[in-house]
Amino acid sequence: MSSNSLCAGFGRVYDGEAGDDMEDIIDTSKIKDNEVISLKNVDFSYNGTLVLTNINITVEKGDFIAILGPNGSSKSTLLKIMLGLLTPKAGEVKIFGQNVRHFKEWSKIGYISQQAANTNTSFPATVEEIVSSGYYTGFGRLFDKAERKAATGEALAAVKITDLSNRLIGQLSGGQRQKVFLARALVKKPEALFLDEPTTGIDAVSQQEFYEMLAKLHKNRMTIVMITHDIDAAIKRATKVGYMEDGNINIYENNGNLSGILASRLIGEGARGRI
Ligand SMILES: Nc1ncnc2c1ncn2[C@@H]1O[C@H](COP(=O)(O)OP(=O)(O)OP(=O)(O)O)[C@@H](O)[C@H]1O
Ligand SMILES: [Mg+2]
């Protein structure tokens, strides 16, 4: 498995060239303390086809945002833009108050891509090696071996897979594999987790276990953005629910009483099958 398949782009380093947005690097007065990600007036197109139009969204510390929407509604694209993996055609993207192009503290961000579930399982790596490889993604000093081993042990314990440490990734069930990816995303002790359909293809019991882990992380102040087709989980676990369609997103507070419009929209979609 290539580390890039999970965290491509997490290695960018500011090259020191002064640009027209240089002020974004140094003007800390603009940074809002509670802001993890902000997108302002973002447009994005693939090969000239506009798939996101005028997106404005802020992810705040402590949010647990579930993003729903039909296939092809640009959920993954939006997440990649938030993480600087795709560059918008127009608009502004900030991470922790800083222009995403100049952001360096990638250890604050954990990411499980939609492709993680399709990882080549014939790759001869152990669970411990996969989790430990989370250290090599992105900018940062090289951690010493003992520090890396300790953090790997903690991440394995946090998702309760210590007993699987020496197993090959190809010898795991889908649910166990997703826990490995969660541990890998957690190994650098991030402040925010971005998950693209992390429970697809795993059984109901494993899904519940996974959600309970997320709930515990969220309780311990982890900010979470999760793309999912699981409406029940979104309504049960998230503090906010985003619904994407037609290149746009609407975010609703999940105050235990989602607005009638959203509820009927989601339940309507749910009745036809999963979103
Ligand atoms: N690399 C690409 N090149 C061109 N078009 C793309 C590319 N990736 C995605 N698209 C198109 O952009 C749109 C949004 O795709 P995206 O993968 O973001 O949707 P999604 O909401 O995540 O869908 P799904 O629920 O199936 O994962 C789709 O129409 C898709 O075909
Ligand atoms: Mg997707």
Describe the overall structure.
With 275 residues, this protein is α/β, with parallel strands linked by helices. The protein has a domain at 61-83 and 104-271: P-loop containing nucleotide triphosphate hydrolases (Rossmann fold, 3-Layer(aba) Sandwich), CATH 3.40.50.300. The protein is built from 9 helices and 10 strands. It has helices at residues 4-7, 23-26, 75-82, 127-132, 145-158, 174-186, 204-219, 231-237, 260-271, and strands spanning 35-46, 49-60, 64-68, 90-95, 98-99, 109-112, 192-196, 223-227, 240-245, 248-253. It has a 6-stranded mixed β-sheet, with helices on both faces. A hairpin with a 2-residue loop joins strand 9 (240-245) and strand 10 (248-253). Helix 5 crosses helix 6 (174-186). The longest helix has 16 residues, at 204-219. It is globular. The protein binds adenosine-5'-triphosphate and magnesium ion. Residues 75-76, 114, 196 line the site of magnesium ion.
